[in-house]
Amino acid sequence: MRLKIIENIEVAKNTYSLKLENPALFDVEPGQFFMVKINTYPFPLLRRPFSVADFGEHLEFIYRVVGEGTRILTTKKAGEFVDVLGPLGKGFSINSTKRLLLVGGGIGVAPLLYLKKTIEETYKISCDAYFGFNNADEIFTKDGNIATMDGSFGFKGNIVEMVEDMLDENTLVYACGPTLMLKRLAFLCFEKNSPMQVSLESRMACGIGVCLGCVVQTSDNRYKKVCVDGPVFDFEEIQWQAL
């Protein structure tokens, strides 16, 4: 499906917001993603997975420049078109019976922005959001409590340190971010009996379960595909030591 670019601007250091027209042909659950074909030319050959940062008037992705493919994407202008496949995957399940705690790190904050909007505007319930970045230059949202590793903005330290005393059996955590952050958070949730849903970041080539490039080992020593069985999982499903 070809969608028109409404806006493609830098919102933080090496981080861009890509807004596309909403064709009103589908609904998007928080946590789902799209596979984006960056060029009609041979390179880059494979689509890139992008989580949904917002959906409503526009379909928005927030992406970081990490290679030649995303660098090319930054050159796309309003009025041009990109080809997208989606929405794909399994999103977050919203539970209104517990305190809701959103914990994100780096570009993993992006899908939590749409989750936060959905919780507050659609379900009409409150949630607490805690987002971590390396430094102030990398912050692309302040719609939450912010931590930076160097202390240049907000709490000084990693985001797990900021939230660890908030975890208990009555708090449901929604998390997305770097693997090391998620592993540390998972350990604490096990320790404090706090339920958690995690959105895993993974390289993938197809997004539809064919290539097997995004498999993750589960706690029962089986394998699941991040693209179709996830990207959102109950944290107890994951074999964290294998990541």
From TrEMBL:
Q: Which InterPro entries match?
A: Cyt_c3_hydrogenase_gsu (IPR012165), Dihydroorotate_DH_ele_sf (IPR037117), Dihydroorotate_DH_Fe-S-bd (IPR019480), FAD-bd_FR_type (IPR017927), FNR_nucleotide-bd (IPR039261), PyrK_electron_transfer (IPR050353), Riboflavin_synthase-like_b-brl (IPR017938)
The note on the cofactor says: Binds 1 [2Fe-2S] cluster per subunit. Binds 1 FAD per subunit.
Residues forming the FAD-binding FR-type domain are 1-94
UniProt cross-references to CDD domains, sorted A to Z: DHOD_e_trans
Q: Which domain of life is it from?
A: Bacteria
List keywords of the entry alphabetically. Answer: 2Fe-2S, Electron transport, FAD, Flavoprotein, Iron, Iron-sulfur, Metal-binding, Transport
Q: What's the protein here called?
A: Dihydroorotate dehydrogenase, electron transfer subunit, iron-sulfur cluster binding domain protein
The residue ranges crossing the membrane are none
**Protein's UniProt keywords contain Cytoplasm:** no
According to its UniProt entry, the protein's GO biological process terms are: pyrimidine nucleotide biosynthetic process
Q: Which family does it belong to?
A: Belongs to the PyrK family.
Protein residues bound to [2Fe-2S] cluster? C206, C211, C214, C227
- One Pfam annotation reads DHODB_Fe-S_bind
Q: Does the keyword Nucleotide-binding apply?
A: no
Look up the record and name the cofactor or cofactors this protein needs: [2Fe-2S] cluster; FAD
- Which molecular function term from Gene Ontology is one that the record holds? flavin adenine dinucleotide binding
* UniProt: FAD binding residues: R48, P49, F50, S51, I62, Y63, R64, G69, T70
